[in-house]
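Example (one chain per record):
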Amino acid sequence: AAASAPAPARPLVIFDFDWSLVNENSDVWVVEQTRPGLKSHMASLNKTDPDCAASWTVLVDRMLCKLHEDGVSRAELEECLTRIPYFVEMFEAARWAHTEGCDLVIVSDANEVFIQVILEHHGLRSLFAEVHTNAAEYEAGGVGPLRVRPYVDPSTPHGCSLCPLNMCKGAIVKKLLEARPTRGPVVYVGDGGGDLCGALALGERDCICARDGFTLLKKLRASSHGTPRASVEAWCDGRDVLGLFRKWLAVRR
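Predicted structure:
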């Protein structure tokens, strides 16, 4: 019998989370929604505490401990996460890409608990094959504060000058691509400076969907860290991303 033709390489869709898959910064959102009076404390720590100034992850961990001290329960914390703003069409874009046979992955500087709560609330968790983000766990059997730990252990630094200390998205993207049996096209949806390294890891067949008015697009256009090999498409809302997905998949599959 003739050998069957090899299966076509599945496209890979990589989402950042804050200001991309959801339309807010989840770390700031929980403070604003549960104890808005502590926003100034968060800003002060970010400026005056050397550890917090050096690492956003450390700042978030401190603030989550502070919220717990101030009486914010796990239930209150997670309830406010279910109300985080999002573009309906962005979630539709993720569902559509999954239905079309793409592999979906989240690469985010948020944390495991925030992402899991939001995805499960909206029925999206099963869409994503992998989630790469900072570790998070409630202390004291679930009734203590939520503690966040960096994705990359500070004792073994990633050494990338483009990325924050806790995570190199470029390294994650490269490992994702190396693990695939055949290299299909990739689309990366992001917004911030932390997405730059991941975006620059893509090749000529790939597409970077960079949010208009945010740092990623500005840095890509400035080419201050090298010219991206992938095509760059700007987006403003979920409708734009859904349209880009349909256009991109139609052209490249």
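Caption: Strands lie at 12-15, 103-111, 128-138, 146-149, 186-190, 207-211, 231-235.
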